[in-house]
Design goal:
Distance between the termini: 38 Å
Largest sheet: 6 strands, mixed
Strand order of the largest sheet: 2-10-9-4-5-6
Shape: globular
Structural class: mainly beta
Helix content: under 10%
Number of helices: 0
Order of helices and strands: EEEEEEEEEE
Radius of gyration: 13 Å
Number of strands: 10
Strand content: over 45%
Oligomer: single chain
């Protein structure tokens, strides 16, 4: 099972920014696509963003398009999520996972105050 560790969450005011990181020890990191997801209590985990192995192909949920940017550094085995113009509705625990999205870390909590 792939080990991932998310970090970078915190408390921020609406309109602010955070950058989340997802580190993995997987030696074949560069071959895999990764996704960021988020979950609030009582709701299903939802897709946020996705990036394929080369980094050329990305995809975003409509709710974050134009505000969030997913990127990766294959030399550091790390995937990032730059979150700008944060809104209170972005409050959630954020998770990253490699495809096929069946291996999850502890997540990192993001709280956006109004």
């Amino acid at each position: 099972q792939v080990q991932v560790e998310e970090s970078g969450g915190g408390l921020v005011r609406a309109g602010g920014s955070l950058r989340l990181s997802c580190a993995t020890s997987r030696r074949t990191f560069s071959r895999y696509c990764y996704g960021w997801f988020r979950q609030v209590p009582g709701k299903e985990r939802e897709f946020v963003a996705h990036i394929c192995s080369s980094g050329d192909s990305t995809d975003y949920a409509d709710s974050v398009k134009g505000r969030f940017t997913i990127s990766r550094d294959n030399a550091k085995n790390t995937v990032y999520l730059q979150m700008n113009s944060l809104k209170p509705e972005d409050t959630a625990v954020y998770y990253c996972a490699p495809e096929p999205y069946d291996s999850w870390g502890q997540g990192t909590r993001v709280t956006v105050s109004s």
